[in-house]
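Researcher: Structure prediction, please.
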Amino acid sequence: MPNRPCVKVGIVAVSRDCFLKSLAENRRRALAAACAALSLPVYECPVLVENESDARAALADLDGKCNSLVVYLGNFGPETPETLLAQRFSGPSMFIAAAEDGANALIDGRGDAFCGLLNCSYNLSLRGVTAYIPERPVGTPAVLAERIREFVPIARAVLGVRSLKIISFGPRPQDFFACNAPIRQLYDLGVEVEENSELDLLVSYRAHANDPRIPGVAADMAAELGEGNRYPDLLPRMAQFELTLLDWADAHRGMRDYVAFANKCWPAFPGEFGFEPCYVNSRLASRGIPVACEVDLYGALSEFILACLTEDAVTLLDINNTVPDDLYASEVRGRFPYRPDDLFMGFHCGNTPLCKLSRGSICYQLIQNRLLENDGEPDITRGTLEGDLAPSALTLFRVQGAADGSVGAYIAKAESLPVASRSFGGIGVLAVHDLARFYRHVLIERHFPHHAAVGFSDCARASFEVLRFLGVSEIAHPLPEGRLYPTENPF
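Model: Predicted structure follows.
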């Protein structure tokens, strides 16, 4: 997936000058060896940092070699230079500390890094420096190598957000206040935004007529769809649109390295372009370029974060409708550990990548067909990619800016069940333990919109750490029975 950062981790060991240098140096080497044993490539900085001059030298050595930093307290560590490293380093930083080596090495070989990390954390706070400190930041080389491996996707997402441009076309659809997107909070998170009109997109699309690349893209679509290619005549139109978006991304990324889209897709789009854009959106998402529906800027950001964390395709779904009681009774009860109110159907017209569907095919948008083609033979409303979501562990995720200037988020572990939806669109029967209370006291109470970004694995822990690193303090998640939400009636 090219539309994401490649994380290059550098390790710098720090040492307080009253401790033996060899202690921190040997521990740094052991940590690098433990990373190598995990096939985790890291750059081992040869500069041992004891003072500010050393910190300057280490930063000079790291320049161009890495974009993410691990500051390793091989012993108690010097609070000023070790925190200056994170302050002056351009990428995300992680702080970890060495556990003691053994019972026979507690005199000259004792490092006191357990103690030193406390002072380090305090100094980071004094300087206003944000750094990642894992839940268990002190350990042996083998343990800390695992912590570094956990840091890699977090660093990837942070680097991605800091160099992301969200490109939008069109205002949100009428009466879609849920897709309101205050821009200031996106800037605060480090995201750039480029807003365009639907007319800009249409002009660019028409300029791609007769593009010589169209037959090749259409052939690739046909090969991907296989038996799901129900409308072969539609593929050239959609191929032309795919090239339009990709060329726009290349020409407009500007000073940013990565892009995501948030595009208006109804009601005018089908009539002017001659198809629904859903399948094209799904193809871009499968390549790591999310295309959020209905000009949902925060949905695009949420999808992009999940794409960085999972290095996989993502989607955007409506938290849409309940699962009927008879469907629950026949397909879920006794087979899966969920109650009826733990379930909902996640739906969108057809933007979920084919690789995340049990089986998919090009269809038409039923609701738009009623509206725009009077329930007749579909033409311009064709272009959705429809099918049931494949069974999978999921992460539901959303970052949202509010009108009052705040930023909130939620994370929920979920599951796509192997249950036929018996409905239309890209859809699945999704399960979240204790969903009903979460729906009422988080999604409704905190005014989250109906769109949820969906990652197709469990990346909840990493999502939480990314949000903390980005400065999002209001992070909600489902609470089990016995733990009340602040607004929940205790009686």
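Model: The longest helix spans residues 141-162.
Researcher: Thanks, that helps.
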